[in-house]
Specification:
It contains two helices and five strands. The protein is α+β, with helices and mostly antiparallel strands. The protein has a three-stranded antiparallel beta sheet with strand order 1-4-5, with no helix packed on it. Strands 2-3 form a two-stranded antiparallel sheet. A hairpin with a 6-residue loop joins strand 4 and strand 5. The protein is elongated.
Length: about 90
């Protein structure tokens, strides 16, 4: 199974439920510091379209991001043309 990570500038909304407001705040703080995955909190997350055309992607085992300067929604133009040269591209 293949895996890619995308990073972009966007606006998001997170709704967290808990027993107290302090508990909710502490869950959010842990998420912001990377100590807890938002998915493990039972949170409702809305992600909105990117604010700019610049999007970054990382393929497994790469450990750095590649820039897509103008996201077109086309695999060839967006991914293949910006694929890291040191990694083989396997298309299923």
């Amino acid at each position: 199974m293949a895996k890619m990570t995308f990073r972009f500038t966007t606006e998001c909304e997170v709704t967290i439920e808990g027993n107290t407001y302090e508990e909710i705040y502490l869950q959010f703080k842990d998420m912001m510091h990377g100590e807890r995955n938002i998915a493990t909190q039972g949170a409702s997350v809305k992600i909105y379209p990117p604010e700019t055309d610049t999007i970054y992607f990382e393929v497994e085992k790469q450990e750095s991001f590649n820039e897509i300067d103008r996201f077109k929604g086309d695999f060839k133009k967006d991914i293949e043309d910006n694929w890291p040269k040191q990694l083989p591209l396997i298309i299923h």
